[in-house]
Request: fold
Amino acid sequence: MLTTDDIDRLSSDARVEAIARRQIVPLDGAMLAVVMHGYFRIFRNAAFVRDVTLGLATCGDVLAPGVAFGVGAAETGAEALSPGHVLLLAPDAWERHAALDPGLNVRLAASVGRRIARLQKKLEQLSRAGVEARVASTLLELADDHGTPTAAGVRLDLPLSQEDLARLSGTTRETCSSIVADFARRDFVRGGRLRGLIVLDPAGLRALAAAAI
Reply:
C-alpha cells in the first residue's frame, strides 16, 4: 500500500479523476490507477458469470499494479462502492518516480504479494468452503484492514451495503443477509450492516472460516 506522501508526489505527474458510487474504473488499459480515497471492489470478468470479485481496495492501493512492471493488468475493472478519487498515472511516470525512490516499487510489490495471497485463499474457499465460511472470512478481513477496536469488539464503519458484502464473499445478498443475521444470533457480531457492525467474537468467526478449509 502506498503512503499519503507517495500519492502526493505521484499526483504531480498524474490526472485526478472523481469517481461516483457504482461507477466502473476500467483496468484493461495502459494506465495505473491509485486510490486516493473511497472503496473499490476489484473484479475480473469470467465465463458464465457476471464477474469474479478479487478484493477490496482503498486509499493507497494500486488497482492495476501489473502495469507498473510492464505485464499488463490482471484485473478487468474496479467498481466504486462509495464516491472516491483515483490517480491515473502512465507507466513511464511511475518509472521516473521509482528511480528517485526505489522504496516505491518495494511498497507496491509488498501490496501485490499480499493481494495474491488473499486471492489464493479466496479461490480455495470458493472451491472448497461453504458460504458461511466465506462470509466469516470476509468479515474478518474487513475487521483486520478497516476495523476500529472498541471495548465491545472491532467496529466496522464502512460505506458498504449487504450486496457489497455478498459480492466480496461470492454469494447472493439474500444468503449473505441470512448468514449475518445468524452470526448476530450467535453473538459473533452485533448489527446487520457494515456501517456500525461490531465483530464481537473474531475467534468464533475464525473457527468457522478455518473449519471448511
